[in-house]
Design brief:
CATH topology of the largest domain: N-terminal domain of MutM-like DNA repair proteins
Largest sheet: 4 strands, antiparallel
Radius of gyration: 20 Å
Oligomer: single chain
Distance between the termini: 20 Å
CATH class of the largest domain: Alpha Beta
Length: about 290
């Protein structure tokens, strides 16, 4: 699933190519992506036609396009959603779901697995109320690392679970959690309340740094499902030190990176640099 850097890359592309455009046509080719809209497909089309995109904004993994009347269109990419800007007449993508006519170009929502979606938010131009419960992300000016660290240190949950909890800190997914924990020398199963304030603040700084570096490289692309609005892949996967590196030597100590099962996914860590808590089996699991 795209994480904060990937969504921010898409947001920047929308800001560059789409903001200021008037929506002169909307075509919904599959109703599932607009399933959350109370007015159905017809209502979604009618309510957007003739309006103008005025800003592209993001919080965590959510992005939205502000409209000229203080409303917004929220987009969640899910597992495979793409927002592509194409010239009129360009051949349709195989999994094209929604098309927005913007004069000489089109904004296309493409989604192979259809876990993503589009919805309209009344009064949501600045911050849609539907996602107001999501915590600020590490790249926002509203992000307060001291407050986040205090919340983490009050919790008995494992630190990786806390990093992935979007009401604690948004935008962090499996990839960047593993990379940040590796940089901090922390095992993901260590409980938050066992960590010092300085340790948590350092970890949050690593989270911010990892995301900023990934953003500079266009995000992380493991397959063709994540691309920017021009259909280009990111290259941060070439810089990963932990995630997906099972069996390769740790860049810090040379010990082979290991993998363990984690919430129907996997965690990757160095068993030497990231000493596991007592009772945790360091061998491969899952």
């Amino acid at each position: 699933m795209p994480e904060l850097p990937e969504v921010e890359v898409v947001r920047r592309g929308l800001e560059r190519h789409v903001v200021g455009s008037v929506i002169n046509a909307v075509q919904v080719l599959h109703e599932r992506p607009v399933r959350a809209h109370a007015g159905g497909v017809t209502g979604f089309v009618d309510e957007l036609r003739g309006r103008r995109f005025t800003a592209a904004r993001r919080r965590g993994k959510y992005l939205w396009l502000a409209l000229d009347d203080a409303d917004a269109m929220i987009a969640h990419l899910g597992m495979s959603g793409q927002m592509l800007v194409q010239p009129v007449g360009q051949a349709d993508e195989r999994h094209l779901r929604v098309r927005f006519g913007l004069g000489g170009q089109e904004l296309r929502f493409v989604d192979q697995r259809m876990f993503g979606g589009l919805s309209l938010s009344d009064g949501g131009a600045l911050l849609p109320p539907e996602i107001a419960h999501i915590a600020p992300d590490p790249l926002e000016t509203a992000f307060d690392p001291v407050a986040v660290a205090a919340r983490i240190r009050r919790s008995t949950s494992a630190i990786k679970r806390l990093l992935l909890t979007q009401t604690v800190v948004s935008g962090v997914g499996n990839i960047y959690a593993d990379e940040s924990l590796w940089r901090a020398g922390l095992h993901g199963e260590r409980p938050g309340r066992q960590l010092t304030r300085a340790t948590v603040l350092q970890l949050l700084e690593h989270v911010k740094d990892v995301m900023a570096e990934a953003l500079e490289q266009g995000g992380t692309s493991f397959d063709a499902l994540y691309v920017n609005v021009n259909g280009e892949s990111g290259y941060f996967d070439r810089s990963l030190n932990a995630y997906g590196q099972e069996g390769r030597p740790c860049a810090h100590c040379g010990t082979l990176i290991r993998r363990s099962a984690f919430m129907n996914r996997s965690s990757y860590f160095c068993p030497v640099c990231q000493k596991p808590p007592r009772g945790f089996a360091t061998g491969r699991r899952g």
